[in-house]
């Protein structure tokens, strides 16, 4: 049985290096490209006609759109509508990475900390950039809450740590959930295959692991949807500080 972690190995398809940096086209980059093309193609086709009585495809696309719009509206407010394209893009990128990774012979790019970490850093620096644009250097008063002066030396470091730890928690949560789920699926599927080949009635022995594997696949699909939602909603929560400073 192949190692459960083999599915996470980065494979180079096109070797390329520039300025001492490895910019090779890998299986991770390929599935990112597939995710972008698939989501763009789907949304374009689904919303092409914009019928008053929507088709199933248009209805599904509108559900995704409204889901993200409601999430932005409820967590950032009406002033946060300018962030909708950003949140929608983040949500779709994570969702497609999670869901496409469940296909046989695919690659789950959201199971790599380098990818989730880079995405979390984009959100992190977007918060700082938009915060300074909207509030100037007053944005950094976010780290100085309304409290008695004598307790500020204790609270300010806590606020700073909680702010700068955001990219870590945001990236590790997604990466850990995707990696753990796929390892479990691989192990259970391996047990089912191994058991079915043990004896004449091995297929009956393998039925249990296969059934559990099917349940795990459904559960992993649910986790994929939830993790995309969690990543997007936390991004909204962080971006709210750029609209309305909290003390």
Which features characterize this protein?
two-stranded antiparallel ribbon; 67% helix; globular; 247 residues; mainly alpha
Distance linking N and C termini: 55 Å
Mean residue pLDDT: 86
CA-based gyration radius: 22 Å
How many β-strand stretches? Answer: 4
Q: Helical element count?
A: 8
How many separate structural domains?
1
Parts with pLDDT < 50 across at least 5 consecutive residues: none
Task: Tell me the major beta sheet.
Answer: 2 strands, antiparallel
SS-based class: mainly alpha
Strand order of the largest sheet: 1-4
Q: Strand percentage, roughly?
A: under 5%
Describe this structure in words.
The protein is mainly alpha-helical and 247 residues long. The chain has one domain. Strand 2 and strand 3 form a beta hairpin. The radius of gyration is 22 Å and the shape is globular. The N and C termini lie far apart (55 Å). The mean pLDDT is 86.
